[in-house]
């Protein structure tokens, strides 16, 4: 039985799709199928050109990217675009870097679709912390070194006054910490983690543009990582992995080794 009002009879559908970290081979089969079927692709700057190239040739592309924290398209405008496209009867893929529900604002977009009565599906993607760790040779859990993982953002919503991350508390968990959007505040984060009890010698891996041809990584320590990554010119998009497991990159960094061997 169709309980939708008549005006919605031709409503399209919105798929909130994770595009993964960049390497198109890390797309899910479902994402690939939907890219080939969608009338419109709504995407941001973290979606790689190689992934976009897999979209239907005649699909309309709408760029709603934000870069470096700057604004290109306010979130509510993106939500309005999605709702309008669906009401125009389109099959829409809202393509997001990594996974739509990990620091991707997929939750807000799904809520807006529900509020508007637009049918939707969520397609998970390989989130960049998992991809960065795998390609950098950092097992996020390890029998000997870590039995937990935490995903954190180093760059909170500036409008939120009272939800500053308690970095000192996260230092006490004994878990691997994966920090998204952490490069701008790296010095503060590293200092506060040490204030919370993590040793200055705690290994830290920084992985920039993971899985892409621009992939770079460095292995440092909590005490030095801010300085070293600045000196080496590391910047967004990057994942910072804090914990004993990061040191394993020393022997497991297979992707960088393969890139070096290919040169
Ligand atoms: N939804 C995304 C995260 C979006 S927030 C996901 O699940 O991965 C944007 C942040 O993701 C960047 O600042 C960076 O910290 C991280 N990121 C995205 N792509 C990345 C990549 N290829 N390599 C390293 N970090 C990446």
Description:
This protein is of the alpha/beta class and 263 residues long. It folds into two domains: 111 residues, Tetrapyrrole methylase, N-terminal domain (Cobalt-precorrin-4 Transmethylase, domain 1); 135 residues, Methyltransferase, Cobalt-precorrin-4 Transmethylase, Domain 2, CATH 3.30.950.10. Helix 6 links the parallel strand 6 and strand 7. It has ten helices and ten strands. The strands form two sheets. The chain has a five-stranded parallel β-sheet, sandwiched between helices. The N terminus is likely disordered. S-adenosyl-L-homocysteine binds next to helix 5, strand 8 and strand 10.
Characterize the main sheet.
5 strands, parallel
CATH topology of the largest domain: Methyltransferase, Cobalt-precorrin-4 Transmethylase, Domain 2
Bound ligand species: S-adenosyl-L-homocysteine
Give the SSE string.
Answer: EHEHEHEHEHEHEHEEHEHH
Helix content: 25-40%
Class of secondary structure makeup: alpha/beta
Radius of gyration (CA) equals 20 Å
CATH class of the largest domain: Alpha Beta
Strand order of the largest sheet: 3-2-4-1-5
Unreliable sequence segments = 1-6
- Corresponding CATH architecture of the largest domain: 2-Layer Sandwich
The best one-word shape is globular
In total, the number of strands is: 10
Topology of this protein?
Layout: E1 13-18, H1 29-37, E2 40-43, H2 49-52, E3 60-63, H3 75-87, E4 91-96, H4 106-116, E5 120-123, H5 128-136, E6 149-153, H6 167-170, E7 176-180, H7 186-195, E8 203-208, E9 216-221, H8 225-231, E10 238-242, H9 249-252, H10 254-262
Parallel strand pairs: 1-4, 1-5, 2-3, 2-4, 6-7
Antiparallel strand pairs: 7-10, 8-9, 8-10
S-adenosyl-L-homocysteine binds next to helix 5, strand 8 and strand 10.
């Amino acid at each position: 039985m169709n309980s939708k009002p008549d005006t919605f009879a031709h409503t399209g559908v919105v798929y909130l799709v994770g595009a993964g970290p960049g390497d198109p081979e890390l797309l899910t089969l479902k994402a690939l199928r939907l890219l080939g079927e969608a009338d419109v692709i709504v995407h941001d700057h973290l979606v790689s050109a190689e992934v976009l190239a897999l979209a239907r040739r005649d699909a309309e592309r709408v760029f709603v990217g934000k870069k470096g924290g700057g604004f290109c398209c306010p979130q509510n405008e993106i939500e309005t675009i999605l709702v309008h496209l669906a009401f125009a009867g389109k099959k829409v893929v809202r393509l997001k870097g990594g996974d739509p529900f990990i620091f991707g604002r997929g939750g807000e977009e799904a809520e807006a679709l529900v509020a508007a009565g637009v049918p939707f599906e969520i397609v998970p993607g390989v989130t960049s912390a998992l991809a960065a760790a795998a390609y950098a040779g950092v097992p996020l859990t390890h029998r000997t070194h870590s039995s937990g993982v935490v995903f954190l953002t180093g760059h909170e919503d500036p409008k939120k006054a009272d939800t500053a991350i308690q970095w000192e508390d996260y230092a006490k968990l004994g878990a691997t910490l994966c920090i998204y959007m952490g490069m701008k505040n790296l010095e503060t984060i590293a200092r506060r983690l040490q204030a919370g009890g993590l040793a200055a010698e705690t290994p830290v891996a920084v992985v920039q543009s993971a899985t892409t041809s621009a992939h770079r990584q460095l292995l440092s320590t909590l005490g030095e990582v801010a300085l070293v990554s600045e000196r080496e010119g590391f910047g967004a998009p990057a994942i910072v992995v804090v914990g004993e497991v990061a040191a394993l990159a020393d022997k497991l960094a297979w992707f960088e080794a393969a890139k070096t061997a290919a040169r």
